[in-house]
Design brief:
about 300 residues; alpha+beta; 6-stranded mixed β-sheet; 13 helices
Amino acid sequence: MSDHATDQATEIFVARRSLLFTVAYEMLGSAADAEDVLQETWLRWVELDLDQVRDPRAYLVRMTTRQALNRLRSMKRRKEAYVGPWLPEPLLTSPDVAEDVELAESVSIALMLVLETLTPTERAVFVLREVFDVGYDEIAAAVDKTPAAVRQIAHRARQHVESRRPREAVSASRTRAALDSFRRTLETGDLQGLLDVLAPDVVLMADGGGLKQGAVRPILGADRVGRYIIGGIGKAKVTIAYEPTVINGHPALALRVNGETDGIMAVRLADDRITGLYYVRNPEKLTRIGAETRLTLR
């Protein structure tokens, strides 16, 4: 490929990089794997004759989807051997992501956990159709299915997700208010105050990945979750700072010990009480927390 053609390919790819990263991340739940997918896509993209590419955006999305599907199938083995609950890699997102309600909902930790229950093909179809509004013919080319089969898969995946996704979209202001109350109970060790913030059927998932301590299984119920949290803070014997942040387009807390990030706590709300607590401590999933990420649906 000539230098001019390489420059043209680079310009086209860079202009769509945020979009391609978002597609790969929503399919994989891992920023590190999404970056690897983009690298693989780029290496194939620069080898193409661009004169034969009618729609660069559609072509790049198709290439990215295929690479992400291959990686998603290989990740299944890694997740089966994972120590404790597996949570998506949290992303420190820019303010414009939080302002885009549709995008923020699609990358929320709660929804991405729902996507984990889909098959790889169902997840690809759901992400492309429901999040990015890609046409059935384009999706069919990306997942090697007929358009009719893709329509059936999309319908099945949509039903599956709708039956498990959060019942209502909760505003950022309500989430921040709940997190403020939650944070105050952690700072004071107020168990009863914590129980007042938690829904009776709250679920806590703590992902240490075998590298840091975390709950081996999800913890269910306000009393058990409250005692686990307050007891864990007491045993830690360190001073923890709870800093508000925005993770995956939603308010969250960064827990810091001696200025270093120890974990990220994301929440799910219903009726202004916390129904889900998602605590990521695995250091391999916190490497991007210092870098703001821009996601896009365009």
